[in-house]
Design a protein that fits this description.
2 copies of one chain form a homodimer. Chain A is built from 11 helices and 14 strands. In chain A, the strands form 3 sheets. In chain A, strands 2-1-3-4-5-13 form a 6-stranded parallel β-sheet, sandwiched between helices. The first copy, chain A, starts with 9 loop residues before the first helix and ends in a 7-residue tail after the last strand. In chain A, 39% of the residues lie in helices and 18% in strands. By secondary structure, chain A is α/β, with parallel strands linked by helices. Chains A and B meet through helix 4, helix 5, strand 2 and helix 10 of A and helix 4, helix 5, strand 2, helix 6 and helix 10 of B. The structure holds a DNA duplex.
Amino acid sequence: MKSEHSIPTMKDVAKEAGVALGTVSKVVNGIPVGESYRLRVEDAIKKLNYQVNSYAQGLKASKTYTIALLIPNTKEPFFASLVYYINLALLKRKYRMLLCSTDSDCDQEQEYVTMAQQNKVDGIIGLTYNPNLQIEENTPFVAIDRSMGTKIPCVASDNFAGGQLAAEKLADLGCTNVAFLRTGSSLDNEPNKRKAGFENGCLSRGLSYEMKILNDGDAYEEFEYFLAEHIHYGRLSFDGIFCVTDRLAYLIIKTLRKLNLRVPEDVQVIGFDGIRPFQGTDYVCSTIVQPVPEIAEMCVNLLLQENISSKPPLVCLPVTYAYGGTTRE
Amino acid sequence: MKSEHSIPTMKDVAKEAGVALGTVSKVVNGIPVGESYRLRVEDAIKKLNYQVNSYAQGLKASKTYTIALLIPNTKEPFFASLVYYINLALLKRKYRMLLCSTDSDCDQEQEYVTMAQQNKVDGIIGLTYNPNLQIEENTPFVAIDRSMGTKIPCVASDNFAGGQLAAEKLADLGCTNVAFLRTGSSLDNEPNKRKAGFENGCLSRGLSYEMKILNDGDAYEEFEYFLAEHIHYGRLSFDGIFCVTDRLAYLIIKTLRKLNLRVPEDVQVIGFDGIRPFQGTDYVCSTIVQPVPEIAEMCVNLLLQENISSKPPLVCLPVTYAYGGTTRE
DNA sequence: AATAAATTATGAAACGTTACATGAAATTAT
DNA sequence: ATAATTTCATGTAACGTTTCATAATTTATT
């Protein structure tokens, strides 16, 4: 005799309802069966509190309804936002997510890809740095912010247009002498197009500009040193700064204020990403906002779409400007 | 004949290595077999690039190595941090995470619990609000920040001690007239002990204090109105404020500055949580820091430990004070 | 009313793994 | 050298689904 506390299976439901196994399967999957059969099965399901075993389903279908998300971390606000919207887009389609926090480490990225394939995920979405990541042919992959060859679609903001927009905005706000600041690696990824876009915008609007790559890290010294170099008689030689991320903008603004320069009165600062310190609060700084919900939706769409032949190699999504208190408006 | 591109199974490995199916299983699971057998199997695995099908494993073992995390969202910094550390603690133990963003909605919480049980998760960690969440007897559950009866362990910061610490710190910093501000629901959860702890601290240190519950939302009006009520001849009647979260502290500080009150010169503000706008930057405000990594580790430990009998109903972890520019030090 | 055609429920087989009873081989004891 | 014991590979059954060929039933046709 069957134990009271064992988990009911389709077989149990079939016996309870007095129908065949296949009939229960059909009811569970919404395939039409005779009215009386359906009702009897539905009653039995309720009575036994039956729930399908998704692992048996996964085994049979060799489809797991799981995708892996490779992301440097889930704490940094931009990544946290991506995780949130990708998770949402997946749950909407009854997919679940295997969250892989890679710490931007190439070896970890590769490990997680291998692990994900072992778990038979239906696909991988990755914001990765490993230039020669090995991915099995039959594992669908969508990249974020980095092109990985023509076979793998890449989704990103329109970073070039974003850079251009920043330059134009600074010009509109009365700036004449601007700077572009960047930290981090010179990896050939999409966000690096912000620089080219900004340069292009400066040229077309007749702004004089300087491009500067700063060392990364939390040390403000580097920033202070750079800024001090451009202060003459208490005045900064720039009246506008475009930072490659809001994070950098935040640090630069802190440094500027420490040096008794007023933001936005003396110098206006625009960042990139669209970060708020908390949900529903103001932006950290005036910024070029990335369309994170749309990026997430696009990634999931591209990953799960069947017609493999027509996948575009690069999808750029439109960015917008948002005021955040560090520009005149 | 088997298709070239079909995914290899244990059977294929067994045929390739010229051994029995069970032998391959043993090798894969690290169960000792004869040296020569092991080597042959390992070679075959490499040659065929075999990977175990975790869904077949899951079906057989009725253990899925997946746990569900129910959390209001994954964008708000405190939650993002929890997600990060819980994910880490799980991956360390070869478990994967099903991330369920509930939007603090009671119905969604229940839906996700049901869904998680359908997916046969090995357990659930939940930061939930639904007072009568239905959880199956045989699904291990660990709650964060809210006691759900003696059968379900709850992990939280030592919120009472945190409130006390805030009061003591304000007293140490020279405050004599302080306020406690809170928004949100009066649900009987752990964070609400911050108030009692603060009150206790005020009494023991002889601080005169006021407790105030504000309406939630992004509307600053409520805050402005409350603060304006306590301004006489341009001076605020408080010299110290303890806010129930950093989020509230952030909004209050913005409002104070808008009203031309200086922080920390005129009034010192302490928040709760330990939020930074970006990784590696300063705290948003002076704050009582929650030990998120330890909370995460404790949740996972309690969830996965075998000796069910000895699960404590409540685990409180120690908090610390951190300077964040909105107090004298 | 009897037969042909269309509809629909049935139940066995298969998915890839693990566990266990079986039997073969190797070791030790007599 | 043979018997008793231990060791260890083998192969089958089972996990809970879905699919599909088959059987049973209903409906349409003569």
